[in-house]
């Protein structure tokens, strides 16, 4: 019985702190009495062990979607899993460090990550019991590695990215280490189910996860939940939420004419672009918090004495949700249509790529938060974590979160600069960052194991996901 299974227990009313129910390692008490009893304690986190009167180390977690409190000793089973994961991750740290440096020191463009692909697939092929498929689903730098315990159970997947100034070398070793730790627990501790490591290239604007999703990689492998991580410089967060994103190209086609001799014979595509661009600035006054409009002009014409026949630009629109993004896109496109109407130029808008916002699964988040805080983390209560975990960035992981229950654990590394900066790229190579990535791997592995052994946790995660999808 895992701690999560107890969170649905309805507590009775008792006048004093007393045991209501004892189940092996767990003691459940009345929430009001518990609050009263712990009010004077110097350490707000305490633990009551079955049959023991003394108060020692604490796990006290508010039940999901109820006002009940769970007070429980961490079971010996959960202690065993966490200790096992930590020991295992330490044992493979040198190999993960080697892979991390290969990925970091050899930056490669979207869908050209051949060095990283080889380093990771060669390593996974050496792991006993793993089935590795390089260049999976027709994508040269994608791969799939699968470990089957042979026992019926859910399928957990971990995803990794490949890159440089966003710390994708750390994402790679975090998910690789976590997957190997879960597989080792399957072999040595009898954990059921399957674990799959998806090698997903081109996260930075290429949408590798989306391509695998559309190709059926996740449905073919009957994936139940999805876990990933991402480094940054802000506080650690379990319930990371990213913005929905749409990247598109705008082109105007006009008619050339001599700008001094006969400008009236031309149709000015640059005027159309400038009108559309200025209309965006006007629109921003009426946009909502979380709406972001970005862009730059890539072709502004050929010469000053010519009425410009062609202009182009690349633009990005972001919003807090895919639903809001759809609304904002209509408003933005209307701005560019205004440029065409005002000048007579022909407008062409071409979509480049779109990412959904990432919606974290709160049921999985409860266990992930527990794992992080057991490792001296300071993840706050879910309502606060959701606020802290809101990011203006975007990722193709968002599309995964609309296909299955997902978490993207955010962990901080020491850096003078944030992601997408040379300073952050340098920080992602340090031993401090390596240690933080391994710790994140431990947290993901523990969360994955709990999802594999706790049927109620898996059901709650899936029910929450189904409810989210139904509201779309």
TrEMBL record:
Residues 247-339 form the Peptidase M20 dimerisation domain. One of its GO terms (molecular function) is dipeptidase activity. Pfam families: M20_dimer, Peptidase_M20. Transmembrane segments: none annotated. InterPro entries: Bact_exopeptidase_dim_dom, Peptidase_M20, Peptidase_M20/M20A_hydrolases, Peptidase_M20_dimer. Coiled coil: none annotated. PANTHER family: PEPTIDASE M20, PEPTIDASE M20 DOMAIN-CONTAINING PROTEIN 2. Belongs to the peptidase M20A family. This is Peptidase m20. It comes from Coleophoma cylindrospora. The lineage of its organism: Eukaryota, Fungi, Dikarya, Ascomycota, Pezizomycotina.
């Amino acid at each position: 019985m895992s701690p999560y299974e107890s969170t649905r227990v309805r507590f009775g009313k008792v006048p004093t702190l007393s045991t209501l129910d004892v189940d092996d390692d767990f003691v459940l008490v009345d929430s009001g009495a518990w609050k009263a009893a712990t009010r004077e304690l110097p350490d707000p986190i305490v633990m009551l062990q079955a049959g023991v009167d003394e108060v020692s180390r604490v796990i006290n977690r508010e039940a999901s979607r109820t006002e009940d409190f769970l007070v429980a000793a961490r079971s010996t089973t959960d202690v065993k899993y966490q200790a096992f994961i930590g020991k295992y991750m330490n044992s493979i740290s040198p190999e993960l460090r080697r892979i991390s440096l290969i990925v970091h020191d050899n930056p490669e463009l979207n869908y050209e990550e051949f060095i990283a692909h080889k380093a990771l697939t060669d390593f996974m092929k050496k792991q006993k019991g793993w089935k590795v498929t390089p260049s999976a689903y027709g994508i040269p730098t994608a791969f799939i590695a699968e470990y089957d315990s042979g026992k019926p159970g859910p399928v957990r997947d971990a995803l990794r990215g490949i890159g440089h100034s966003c710390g994708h070398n750390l994402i790679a070793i975090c998910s690789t280490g976590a997957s190997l730790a879960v597989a080792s627990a399957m072999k040595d501790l009898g954990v059921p189910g399957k674990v799959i490591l998806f090698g997903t290239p081109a996260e930075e604007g290429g949408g590798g996860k989306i391509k695998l999703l559309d190709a059926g990689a996740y449905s073919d492998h009957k994936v139940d939940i999805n876990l990933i991580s991402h480094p940054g410089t802000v506080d650690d967060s379990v319930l990371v939420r990213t913005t929905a994103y749409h990247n598109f190209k705008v082109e105007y086609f006009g008619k050339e004419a001599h700008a001094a001799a006969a400008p009236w014979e031309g149709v000015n595509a640059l005027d159309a672009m400038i009108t559309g661009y200025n209309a965006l600035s006007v629109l921003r006054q009426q946009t909502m918090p979380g709406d972001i409009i970005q862009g730059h002009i890539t072709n502004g014409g050929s010469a000053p004495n010519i009425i410009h026949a062609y202009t182009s630009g690349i633009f990005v629109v972001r919003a807090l949700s895919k639903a809001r993004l759809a609304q904002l896109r209509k408003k933005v496109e209307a701005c560019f249509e205004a440029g065409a109407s005002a000048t007579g130029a022909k407008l062409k808008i071409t979509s480049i790529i779109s990412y959904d916002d990432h919606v974290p699964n709160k049921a999985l988040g409860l266990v992930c938060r527990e794992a992080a805080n057991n490792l001296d983390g300071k993840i706050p209560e879910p309502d606060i974590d959701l606020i802290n975990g809101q990011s203006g960035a975007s990722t193709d992981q968002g599309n995964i979160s609309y296909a299955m229950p997902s978490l993207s654990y955010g962990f901080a590394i020491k850096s003078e600069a944030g992601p997408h900066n040379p300073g952050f790229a340098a920080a992602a190579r340090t031993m401090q960052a390596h240690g933080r990535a391994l710790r994140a791997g431990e947290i993901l592995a523990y969360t994955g194991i709990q999802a594999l052994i706790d049927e109620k946790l898996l059901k709650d995660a899936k029910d929450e996901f189904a409810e989210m999808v139904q509201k779309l």
